[in-house]
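FORM 12-B: Structure-to-Sequence Request
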């Protein structure tokens, strides 16, 4: 049977971030105001269609506006929208103001790339190394600065996201190609990933489990497949996962240390001792 209800709020997936409940309350307020106004407008419309229908003996007449009515229907929505805007700013502050992002317990970088989500975790030292777009290559999507020792142990993963619950997680978000959108429905997060800029997103998940990470920006032919799973874990499980990643990374780093690659001297032009036009 077709199950109809005016209450479409049940379409939300379960909210599991610290602010998802307040977010849903705000959504519900706006939703029910919209339902109310929709009903009012449609009932008025149908009533008027019936009341002012063509009948013999009834003549139409023409007049130029009504100031009281026009003033009212301009002022009422203005008050409504300005009021909702001011009221919802509290929620916006909590979720979006970059100046109010709590001190991170865990910090990661995420970049969108048609059609994958990539993550960078701080390695064994717990610190993300410096990055800059000038270092970005096909094999160094995050532009990790090779001269920063703290970046050497950073761990780069594609489509694999594990994070601990009850921690303030800050995601530094960007894109390497086109606009993508970092969409975590269970956390009530949707944030554009913009090439050339880093945007901070924060959340604190309260429940373990696997949750969808999708791209919510039409970014090309593979857009539909640009999704991953965010695995929210207990502290202990997350530490175990991180340890395994760090151990695997250590094997690579040790191998590189034992057998260092020849330094590409040609990559950086040697500074000219006496450049043209220079006088000493
Ligand atoms: Cu995308």
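FORM 12-B RESPONSE
SEQUENCE OUT:
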């Amino acid at each position: 049977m077709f199950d109809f209800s005016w209450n479409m709020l049940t379409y939300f997936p379960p909210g599991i971030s610290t602010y998802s409940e307040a977010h849903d309350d705000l959504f519900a307020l706006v939703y029910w105001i919209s339902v109310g106004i929709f009903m009012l407008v449609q009932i008025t419309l149908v009533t008027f269609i019936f009341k002012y229908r063509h009948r013999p003996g009834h003549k139409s007449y023409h007049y130029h506006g009504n100031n009281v009515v026009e003033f009212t229907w301009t002022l009422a929505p203005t008050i409504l929208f300005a009021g909702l805007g001011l009221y919802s700013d509290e929620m916006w502050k909590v979720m979006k103001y970059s100046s109010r992002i709590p001190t991170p317990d865990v910090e990661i970088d995420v970049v969108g790339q048609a059609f994958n989500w990539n993550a960078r975790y701080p390695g064994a030292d717990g610190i993300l190394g410096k990055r800059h777009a000038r270092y970005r290559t096909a094999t160094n999507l995050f532009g990790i600065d090779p001269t920063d020792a703290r970046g050497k142990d950073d761990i780069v993963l594609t489509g694999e996201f594990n994070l601990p619950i009850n921690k303030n997680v800050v995601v530094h978000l960007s894109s390497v190609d086109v606009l993508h959108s970092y969409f975590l429905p269970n956390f009530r997060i949707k944030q554009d990933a913009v090439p050339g800029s880093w945007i901070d997103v924060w959340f604190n998940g309260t429940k373990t489990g696997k949750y969808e990470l999708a791209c919510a920006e039409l970014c090309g032919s593979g857009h539909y497949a640009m999704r991953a799973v965010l695995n929210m874990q207990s502290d202990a499980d997350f530490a175990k996962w991180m340890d395994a990643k760090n151990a695997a990374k250590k094997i690579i780093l040790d191998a590189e240390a034992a057998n260092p690659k020849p330094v590409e001297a040609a990559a950086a032009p040697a500074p000219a001792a006496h450049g043209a036009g220079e006088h000493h």
